[in-house]
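Ticket 4471: requesting a sanity check on a complex prediction with magnesium ion. Repro inputs:
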Amino acid sequence: MGLVFITGTDTGVGKTHVTGHLAAAIRSLGHNITTQKWVQCGDLDCPDISAHNTAMGVTDAKDAMANARSVYEFQMAASPHLAAKEQGISINPSKLKAASTALQNTHDIVLIEGAGGLMVPLTDTLTTLDLVAEMSIPTIVVVDNKLGCINHALLTLSALTTHRIPVIGLIINHSAPPTSDPTATHISQDNPHIISQLGHAPVLGILPYNPDQKSYRDIAEKVIQYAIK
Ligand SMILES: Nc1ncnc2c1ncn2[C@@H]1O[C@H](COP(=O)(O)OP(=O)(O)O)[C@@H](O)[C@H]1O
Ligand SMILES: [Mg+2]
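Returned structure tokens:
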């Protein structure tokens, strides 16, 4: 049924963490969910799909749809267009679409984790944004709550709305332990409000560092409501 795209303000902001734990929470609420990674670049010994599986409590080996879940895997930790080129391959967007459709046909919800941020190129002529727009996939933006994230978040939201991609909302994440610096605390307390207001997007949830199950579950309920109509 529903595809949901998980993008973020950058690489390393918590997309894998959120995708895996959100999928686990949605599964625990009784839904047939899976995750997908269109392109994995680098970290082939510990790919994002394996991290999703660990969070969901499923094993890599038993998955009959493994090839659809992880479509391209490249050794180079770089933008997909370059990592593919390095191996003499050009990413075929039709292959990505077909894999997503196959998962969509067999699951209630499919969470697709992007590689890097929204405008990362898949080929020399196609960005991730272009493909998400073509497929009109409702999108969640993971924001790592720190100095600088307002600009990254608003640019991401602006690109999504300009391309008429439905925005489900923001997940404000804390990928690092809390600091005792009062200025940093003040900034991180203000960020969700200003991003939501100027970006016209709801905050689905604020995830602390090492959140408890309830934090994921609250977000999961909102995503289910949106994705399963
Ligand atoms: N809310 C969180 N609590 C604890 N660790 C987190 C949280 N969010 C992210 N991390 C950690 O931060 C690092 C980067 O997150 P990751 O999900 O891999 O980012 P991305 O997929 O955007 O590159 C990982 O080590 C991940 O476990
Ligand atoms: Mg990731």
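Notes from triage: The CA atoms of residues 168 and 226 lie 7 Å apart. Leaving this open until the requester confirms.
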